[in-house]
Amino acid sequence: xxxxxxxxxxxxTHKVVDGVSFSVHSGETLGLLGPNGAGKTTTIxxxxxxxxxxxxxxxxxxxxxxxxxxxxxxxxxxxxxxASFHPHLSIAEDxxxxxxxxxxxxSESRLQARExxxxxxxxxxxxxxxxxxxxxxxxxxxxxxxLITDPPILYLDEPTxxxxxxxxxxxxxxxxxxxxxxxxxxxxxxxxxxxxxxxxRVIIIDHGRIIAQGSPSLLRRSVGIxxxxxxxxxxxxxSADLLALRKIPGVMDLHSSNGCxxxxxxxxxxxxxxxxxxxxxxxxxELDLKEPxxxxxxxxxxxxxxxx
Length: 308
Prior knowledge:
Layout: E1 2-11, E2 14-24, E3 29-33, H1 40-47, E4 55-60, E5 63-64, H2 69-73, E6 76-79, H3 91-101, H4 106-119, H5 135-146, E7 153-157, H6 165-180, E8 184-188, H7 192-198, E9 201-206, E10 209-214, H8 216-222, E11 227-233, H9 239-246, E12 251-257, E13 260-265, H10 270-281, E14 284-290, H11 294-302
Helix pairs in contact: 3-4, 5-6
C-alpha cells in the first residue's frame, strides 16, 4: 500500500531524514516514534506531499507522490497535529467545505458531512464552530475531516496530544474502529502506551535514521531487557552506592527518577544480589518488578538526554 525507499531530506547541509526506507501493508497500523527533532514530522510531510524529498521515492497505492500527486492524494486523508478551524464555519459547513475540496459533488458532500459527523458523535454540536469544541471533540473533528472521502489510508499526526487520559482513551476507541474497518494507518505519537495498544508495527527514528523496527513485542525482546525493577530506598543512594549496584552482573542500566531507582535487568537472577546490596547501602522501602514496556525500549535505544 505504501512503499518508501531511500528517503532523504536536507536543509542546507543538515540531513533531517537520512536514507529512510519502509513499507506499510494494506490494513496495517504503523507507529512512527522518535525524540523531538528525530525526523518524524518531516517524514510525514514528505509522505503527504507537503515537502519535496531531496532524494528517494514514495509510492502510495502504486502512485509516486511526486510524479502523480493527485492520484496519490486521493488515497489518503490527514489528521494534523495542530488544529485549525475557519472562524465563520460551523462543523457541518467545515466538513462540507473539505468534501467539496476533495472533488465530491454537492449532494455527496452533504451526505459525507452528515455521516462523518455521526461517526464522530458530534451531531449535537454540528452548528458550532470548531473553536467552541473541547479538545477531544476537536480531535474527532480533525479525524472526521481525514475521513470525509472514506480513503483507505489515514495519516494521524499525534492525534491525542494535549488530551486528558479519558479523552485520549476515548480517541483510541475511534482509532481501533478504523483498524477494524481495515484502514491503513500511520500514527506518530509520543505516548509509548498508545503505540503498544494501537500499532501492529513500530519504527523508531533518531537523527533522521531508522534505528529499530518491528512489532512492540519483538522490539521489547530485541534490546535484551528481561525485566525492570523499581526500587524506593529508605535513604538516598550515594554515587558510590549507584556504582556498586551498576557493577552487579545482570544489571544493564539504572537511573534515578522521582526518588526511586529504575534498574533494567538482563536476567532476573541479579535480583537477589540487588536486594541484598541495596538493603545494606540505603535500605529498601518499596520494590516493584515488571516486564519491560515500549518506553523502556525507546529510552534504551535513544538515550535519556533531553531533546529540545
